[in-house]
Amino acid sequence: MDGAIAERAAARPPSVPDLQAPRLIRVDPRDNVAIVANDGGLPAGTRLADGLELRDRVPQGHKVALDDIPAEGEIRRYNEIIGHAAGPIRAGEWVEESRIAMPAAPPLDALDVEHAAALPPVPLEGCTFEGYRNPDGSVGTKNVLAISTSVQCVAGTVEFALKRIRAELLPRYPNVDGVVALTHSYGCGVAIEAPGAAIPIRTLRNIALNPNFGGEVLVVSLGCEKLSPLRLLGRDPGDDVVTMQDEAFDGFGAIVAGAEARLEILNRRRRETCPVSDLVVGLQCGGSDAFSGVTANPALGFASDLLVRAGATVLFSEVTEVRDAIHLLTRRAADREVARALIREMAWYDAYLARGEADRSANTTPGNKKGGLANIVEKSLGSIAKSGTSPIVDVLAPGERVRRKGLVFAATPASDFICGTLQLASGMTLQVFTTGRGTPYGLAAAPVIKVATRSELARRWRDLIDFDAGGIATGHASIEETGWALFRLILDVASGRTEVWSDRWGIANDLALFNPGPVT
Ligand code: CA
């Protein structure tokens, strides 16, 4: 998608947009459907500036046929086929979900990988932020003590110790932003040698190394679990572990003491000026609607391109939301190896879904459909807009750590919590999360900038949404202006100058591991 928005109803862009005038948004001039932009939708009989008259009432975000479309004719949005007409559709009619037959996913064996050679972007010099540099060279955006756990059995105990640490210790270490428990439901009662176990194990290992935790590792273990601290960390845990079944363990004090030793070190961390190339920004969406792909995601794509040009690492994810647009992504692979790796991750997920007797159509939610997204094809085309136009330089399997700077596809499920957890494992230190329907999602380990696709949502959720991209739909702002503003906000949040709402209120979702392996 080229990001151009054709406003069909407006003869020329007015300086002060008339929000009452009927407005359709067509993403690409070759599209034969457009979405209704007006809050509350438009009634049947509405006449648009170019003479088209609506034959049905069309809800906000839903599609209107711009031309007559014959039965089985192509329905185009983003200049891509989002489906075929289930029966004849007349111009001005509401093209609701049941009128669109979903096409098959692009076959993976027909993609051209031999010519993958996307050009590097034009550098953007001199952009900096204030971050916490770690001994290994990585840079955090927060200063947080993380307490890892090797098994769910200790989770309640660690949460209790956390209350004491917060009450008794944290006030004495004012440079530390907080303490989090990396609790989860894994560690025992699982087939730990099964191939699928590699994913949750490396996720837990790599999360402990997230740059926001300053290189300080503390594991609380029970002692009899399958996921031993040795297996969890991939090294001798030495003094980095407290084992509850050990004879030496004599109560919560051992956990609190372990925390205090690390708080002493973390409290000495100070922000310093770092190049933007030290940032690792994750992108995600959740509760998407038809505006996601015309406002928030293209603006985020523009900001993502700026970050990449400034040398940052940007992760985009959510396999089931890129699967139907994979033919657009393999074209952007920096080389053949990257293109093959993209296809490998798609094929892995196709097989994973098939084992569970599901397919990619299981992705769309009732809320997505109410918001105007007919199927996963349409959702995917809007979703990949947030990856901008940069070349894709690397592909990570779920939970792997970043290896290269630039735009990276980090393969994850689309589930908000699992995607967030896996991106943290990959080393993400700040996430930008776009939402159309609205979700109060947050992470304890990294700031999450929540971007609304519609101004109406941003107004209602004024103390949950950090950034309003809705002005793109109303004609108040361009994708470029909005993308620059978002880029600046990303640097402000990474520097601790601006606090996101979820951090202000302490709203955070649980970590959720991706475990494709068997449970015993
Ligand atoms: Ca998601």
Strand order of the largest sheet: 17-18-16-15-19-20-21
Number of DSSP-assigned strands: 21
Helix content: 25-40%
User: What number of structural domains do the residues give?
Assistant: 3
Low-confidence stretches: 1-14
Bound molecules: calcium ion
Amount of beta strand: 15-25%
What is the CA–CA distance across the termini? 46 Å
As a whole number of angstroms, the C-alpha radius of gyration is 24 Å
Q: What is the residue-mean pLDDT, rounded to a whole number?
A: 94
What's the overall geometry? globular
How would you describe the overall organization of this protein?
The protein is α/β, with parallel strands linked by helices and 520 residues long. Helix content is 27%, strand content 17%. The protein has 14 helices and 21 strands. It has helices spanning 155-169, 198-207, 229-233, 253-266, 296-309, 326-330, 336-355, 366-370, 376-383, 416-426, 455-460, 471-474, 479-494, 501-505; strands spanning 6-7, 24-26, 33-36, 63-65, 74-77, 80-85, 100-101, 128-133, 139-140, 144-149, 178-182, 218-221, 241-243, 272-275, 280-285, 313-316, 392-396, 406-410, 430-435, 448-452, 467-468. The strands form five sheets. The chain has a seven-stranded parallel beta sheet with strand order 17-18-16-15-19-20-21, with helices on both faces. The longest helix is centred in the middle third of the chain and has 20 residues, at 336-355. The two termini are 46 Å apart. It binds calcium ion. Calcium ion binds at residues 284-286, 318, 414, 416, 419. Calcium ion (CA) is lined by residues 284-286, 318, 414, 416, 419.
